[in-house]
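Researcher: Checking consistency across runs. Here is Methylenetetrahydrofolate reductase again:
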Amino acid sequence: MAAFRETLMALLKFRSRDTAPTPAGLADLLSGYSIEVMPRTAEKVEDFRSLLPAGTRVYIAHIDGTPFEDMLATARRLRAEGFEPMPHFPARSIADRATLADMVARYRGEADVKQALLLAGGIASPRGPFHSSMQLLETGLFDGFTRLHVAGHPEGNRDIDPDGGEAEVMAALSWKQDFADRSDAAFAIATQFAFEAPPVLAWADRLAANGITMPIHLGIAGPAKLQTLIKFAIACGVGASLSVLQKRARDVSKLLLPFEPDEILTDLARARAEGRGKNIQSIHFFPLGGIKTNAEWATAHGGTAPAPQI
């Protein structure tokens, strides 16, 4: 508990560094960014067209306990307003193959869903026969989708590698790479959010060294109050990032400034300009401080509409 309090106090002292001139590569990095919503937060948005570039890919997070009808209604609305809905399919929350088949059929038939994020999900015990995204892919029910994303964890995933390594995670991604190579769908790795560029770049290099060529859509926490950021980071198990933020905590006079992702994105843009991190293709925002705040920040920093999708 004492260590946690120390970390918490250090985090409350964290501020992003003074903003440097935006490098030209930042607009390229933010071009075609995606963003995530939950049905309950989407309900608070009067019109997504006033916030996001037309055609933006919008992930619909399926938090355990969210009624499927709410997920479907959000997908229908996003499609009607001119966006590309990409719902989550959490394997461990799906009761059986028939339920999955019904979900897929209704998404496709009622909301013209052609893209999906497949992941294991956050609950410990599966409610049915599925415990991994690999099993979802093997059902064949996603044949015909134009784009499929799978989860990535630059800081590791102790649910898969309890020892803190990444052998099992790499093996799973290698399996998914093999599947992607045989698929007609465009595959990518959508990651948990991160706060520092060097570990992400090192992870991207390790993927390439292991023959994993799926492009990375890097998760980034959007502008948010530090308290909000801490809450989500702890809930999502982003332990390494908490340590990073603790080490970078400084400047008591700036305690109340919100976190903004300028630093990591600027560092990534510069790295890409130098030829590093080329497999980091896109940015995926987690709007922890609100969709409107995140969308306005992205626009102000060069975020634009995506290129036409297949």
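Researcher: Does this match what you'd expect to see?
Model: One thing to look at in this run: The mean pLDDT is 86.
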